[in-house]
Amino acid sequence: MRVLVVEDHEELAETVAGGLRREGMAVDLALDGPTALERAEVNGYDVVVLDRDLPGIHGDQVCRRLAGGGSRARVLMLTASGTVADRVAGLGLGADDYLPKPFAFAELVARIRALARRAQPALPPVLVRGELRLDPARREASRSGDQLPLSPKEFAVLELLLGAQGAVVSTEELLERAWDEAADPFSQTVKVTVSRLRRKLGEPPLIETVDRAGYRIR
After folding, report:
1. Global pTM value
2. What 3 state SS string does 110-138 have?
3. 98: alpha, beta or left? (left if phi > 0; alpha if psi -120 to 50)
4. CA 131, CA 129: separation in Å to the nearest integer?
5. Is the pLDDT of residue 101 over 90?
6. What is the pLDDT of residues 119-150, one digit of tens each?
7. For 186, how many CA atoms within 13 A lie in the half-sphere containing its CB?
8. pLDDT at 197 over 80
9. How far apart are CA 29 and CA 149, in angstroms?
10. According to the UniProt entry, which residues carry 4-aspartylphosphate (predicted)?
11. What pLDDT band is residue 158 in, cutting at 50, 70 and 90?
12. Neighbours of 205 (CB within 10 A)
């Protein structure tokens, strides 16, 4: 999934982003309200983790504009204040969930994953196709019961392909949803990652290349 972390405390933002990347997510950062809106307009995020107290444009206004602008991204609002009144106010602005600071990182990850499932057609918690099984919450993938040693990007690509349930996923969509904005759209990154994933999945081949369209799981 692709996540935008909006937090003006740079050290905290980098810490959260680093942790989410280790969970296999593609993460972009914004340190103020205007940058958050600009990136949300350009990129298709599954979840926006939004601090409420932002410079430039307040987090409340960012949330309101995201909710009113037709963005498919789900908004998880963060704030140092955890009163009932603040939670009600945040949800009233269009936020999908609310998490007071300080928070446990494991809870943040669980809430992001839950929101991401709501940002797209509902999928089962464990993805299964034939002998292939992938559990996003446990970060486990296996074929015929044998564990697959996948890198975070390989895991993310396989999750997207399995989530498509046999439909073709374009190279552009894989790049957009499994990599962050630092990825070069003209590189061979997706092709190389799919090639490595194919080798790890073993025989017979499971990933099919559809000419001029993308990839799908057989």
Report:
1. 0.70
2. HHHHHHHHHCCCCCCCCEEECCEEEECCC
3. beta
4. 6
5. no
6. 666 667 789 999 999 998 888 999 999 999 99
7. 0
8. yes
9. 28
10. 51
11. very high
12. 11
The 3-class secondary structure across the chain, one letter per residue, is CEEEEECCCHHHHHHHHHHHHHCCCEEEEECCHHHHHHHHHHCCCCEEEEECCCCCCCHHHHHHHHHHCCCCCEEEEEECCCCHHHHHHHHHCCCCEEEECCCCHHHHHHHHHHHHHHCCCCCCCCEEECCEEEECCCCEEEECCEECCCCHHHHHHHHHHHHCCCCCECHHHHHHHHCCCCCCCCCCHHHHHHHHHHHHHCCCCCEEEECCCEEEEC
Determine if the peptide bond prior to 136 is cis (ω within 30°): no
Please choose, from the candidates 216, 112, 213, the residue with its C-alpha nearest in 3D space to the C-alpha of residue 160. 216
How does the average pLDDT of the chain come out, rounded? 88
* 194 pLDDT more than 80: yes
118 against 136, higher pLDDT = 136
